[in-house]
Structure prediction request, 950 residues.
Amino acid sequence: MARIELKNVSKSYGNHEVVWDLDLVIPDGSLTVFVGPSGCGKSTLLRMIAGLEDISAGDVLFDGERANDVSPVRRGVAMVFQNYALYPHLTVRDNIGFGLKMAGAGKDEIRERVDEAADTLHIEPLLDRRPAALSGGQRQRVAIGRAIVRDPTVFLFDEPLSNLDAELRVVMRVEIAKLHQQLRATMIYVTHDQVEAMTLADQIVVLRAGQIEQIGTADELFSEPRNLFVAGFIGSPQMNFLKGRHIGGGNIELAAGGRLHMPGHELADGEPVTVGIRPEHIVTQSETSLVSGRVDVVENLGGVRFAHTTLPSDETMVVESRADVRPKPGDNLSIGFSNRHVHIFRESGEAANRLTESAIGDSFRRVE
Amino acid sequence: MTLGTAKIDKKGTRFGNTALSATQARRLTLAGLALPSILLMVAINGYPILFAAFQSMYDGSLLNWGEFVGFGNYAEVFRDPAFWRAVRFTVIFTMAGVLGSWAVGFGLALLMLKPFPGRALFRVLLLLPWIVPIVVSSMSWNWLLATPYSLLPQAVEAIGLGRVMFLADPTMAMITVCVFKVWISYPFMLMIMGGALQAIDKNVMEAAEVDGCSGLRRLRHMILPMTARTTYIAWILMVFFSVNDFPTIYLLTGGGPLSSTTTLIVMAYRTVFQDFLPGYGVAISFIVTIALVALSIFLLRQIRKSSLQ
Amino acid sequence: MTPTNPKKRPDWARTILLLIISTVLLSPLCAVFWLSLRPRLGTDIAGPTFTNFVYIFRNTEVLLWLSNSLGVSLIAAVCSLIVAAPAGYVLSRARGRAVNAFSLTIFAVQSLPVIVFIIPLFVMFAQVSLVDSLAGVAIIYVATSISVACWMMAAYFDSIPKDLEEAAWIDGCSVFTTFVRIVLRNSLPGILSVMIFSFLLAWNDYLIALVFLRSDSQFTLPIGLQTFFQQNQTDWGPVMACAVIMMLPPILVFATLNRFFSVGGVGGSLAGR
Ligand SMILES: Nc1ncnc2c1ncn2[C@@H]1O[C@H](COP(=O)(O)OP(=O)(O)OP(=O)(O)O)[C@@H](O)[C@H]1O
Ligand SMILES: [Mg+2]
Prediction:
């Protein structure tokens, strides 16, 4: 078990800053997920925690102790790589037992612990094969086996499921969640798949260009995104964004027509804003209609349909509709939504601060 | 037993104190791994080069350095008409070696690009001139054309082209040596260019064919540009192989007749080991070295630049 | 060229064309075999015989030369691997100014003419009695093969995923044990190409042996053969029998292991740095 702390951590390759002055606490026993677009520095951050990458500035602390110069083994980390990195010349048994062997464990102990890990992961029949003779999912299990057998304090996963097909990904995702409950070790998990992030994480860290955009639980990120980037990144399909202007007194005029009354936000008169609303929060009954949109395309996912519409302002908007409403291309939809689901962002991209207790009742955002 | 997990040691710290950080240990190991090769290069290449640089400024014999003459040997070399003749033939020999072997090797690689019965066998067979020891191949060529009674001169005479003296006539000897060099070197080009051709995406070639780009036009507009980088590298390597080549010439003609096939390297060898003038001979080889090192550094930069784009 | 058609009949025309080309190109080598099997002058045996081979084994030191050559070439191949593999690993994995200088040096060494360091080496080796010794020659062979051997190893190591090493570090291997237990262990094709390359270089060398080996007992095959050839210019049979013995090992090595051998990869990797 370990609590990991990053203090003012930076990483640069030559002049190229990849991670910049980053502070982060990963609580003992938590499952923390790093998400962010490709190239944002997730892997780099994870590898710095693992001890595979030098830290250009700042400190990495394990249980309060500086670990910058400590080798990966002595940090007690185990890592599962995206392409598994199984040793091709060793059998599955030897692959899993390799770390124990390097640590000088006895033959019997290695055998016992490898069997135990194999039992947990249901890979006993594979123990005498070589990695080349395994399927992707099986390799993935072996890679996880190699990590758990050493009883590490910290598990690191770098996009471990991205090479699996969609179905297997769901199965393995559940198994990793189970594993976390069972082992209660600190786990850090890197992914660019926000569904994986939302389903697994105790704590999600959203990264962009080497900096943290927001840290929070899945619910917090979903309902209280701190800025446009997080709002757009979390949730599928994406949040809709509409241009507007605060005309004073909490009234916002949308470029697409219609007016919202959103009191309690710290906005100047005449300030341009972006209004965000998730597709699932849109209602298409005429009584709440705010703007109207022409349907271009309808995606039918079975239970839900997503209508892609164009507003009078030429902005596009995705509308989720349940079974009872069946929009067709060419239809005009009257689009409305309740104020409590609306997110307001200032021109800088930051969410507008609220002045009073909001309808959602969560108040941490009032901090200046 | 828990491994790698939080073992709090006696001092109460988790990681304790180590003399070396993980990074330092890694750097040190890598330096250690490079060390044997560095030592070898210093002992067998570096030190002798320095030694040679000094020796080229003396006019003595093999084991007795003699008088210090400064750059006298170099000045003398540059005044020596034999040196300039050797430069001329070195250039001819190198150009012929590079371009000739490239043309033959690339042509064969193109011929063998598509599958046909026996392709695997031919791939190995055609590499033989490169694998067979030079002593053996020079001997076989000697048998083939050295004397007027050898097979090739007899054959040429029989078809009415008169008496051709392949190794006794200076011009003919130059041509023969160049052809011999091409024959020895084309397999190297065949291998490298064959690899480059196979690396070309099949779909691109097929797309070109669909677009009606075939035959010579495909060669010019598709294949040559796509293998240009490899061609460039292969040429550079072959320049070095040719300029530094000693046995190819020495074993076939010994540099003769009338020094017509003497390259700089052969000249340096003969000056040192037959005329026993090490200072002078080393000066010659040093001029070659400096030219080649300069060339190699320049070309390495060039390739790096082109590979960045 | 004709459009590709998977159902096309085998391209025999091309086979015949290449057969003709190969016959022309390989005729000098065929002549070697043919001459070695031709009955000796003055005997009345018709058809191929091995009398030439019997003759050279009886009347020359060919067996000694052969064992000298084999010994030197094998030692050179092994030593070259021992030196080049770690250096190639550094070239493949380490980054930085020092590494750039290192790779530039290795590249420059490749371009040095052997002749330029042979004289000083001769003087050096004379002081430590390595002249006229097979060990001395083997050392120089390792040095002459080192550049290409390093690049070949580096090119091969480049193809080994870095993750594999990182996994090993995390499993508790040091950089050195990772190199030996993980990287080298999975580099057999690369190791074989380097050894083949160095073996052939040593086996085929003429110049270094010519300068350094002075006495009959130390001769390698090329020198022995050349000496023998100079003494028996007109008696081609035994000379060619000797030549056959000399060219068989490289041909055999190459024919069996050529699938591991790729110079193309080296060329490509040279450009990458
Ligand atoms: N060795 C390196 N040298 C220079 N730049 C590097 C190096 N490794 C990574 N980078 C850069 O660092 C940035 C972050 O890389 P990183 O691998 O951490 O991204 P990532 O978030 O894991 O992306 P992905 O989702 O694609 O895996 C990238 O812009 C990358 O180009
Ligand atoms: Mg990554």
Q: What stands out?
A: Chain C has one domain: 66-260. The mean pLDDT of chain C is 84. Chain C touches chain A at residues 161, 163-164, 166-173, 177, 182, 185-186 (CB under 8 Å). The domain at 66-260 of chain C is CATH 1.10.3720.10 (MetI-like fold).
